[in-house]
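Entry 12.
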Amino acid sequence: MEISIERFVTGPLETNTYLIINEKKHVLIIDPSSGCSELISYISTNQYIPEAIILTHGHFDHCLGISELQDIFTNLPVYINQKEKELLFDPNKNGSILIGMDWTFTGVTYDLPVGPMTIGSFQINVIAVP
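Predicted 3D structure (tokens):
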């Protein structure tokens, strides 16, 4: 399967957010911070179909855009490794408290275990990099 990768800079810490795009025009969104309007416009303009949000870890600057994206692309699942999930619930652990925010995410998440797995139309191999 042929894929392409697009990078966007989002959020207060200028986080790298990535789109992984396959030939079917389906996309995975990796680490969306806030201020996703350019990314949302790019997805819509190109008629891409978002299949999931994948979080590499639970720090706020890699997660702030979840709600923004789910408001536009309803039912978009969120994947995170089980060891990182607790950061989503605690502003002290996810670091948002350091910039005066009290950010948490309590929505549904799906486990992102180490090893091969399928997310939407993508076959991926998750590697732990603690």
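Annotation: Strands lie at 3-10, 15-22, 26-30, 49-54, 78-80, 110-111, 115-119, 122-126. The longest strand covers residues 3-10.
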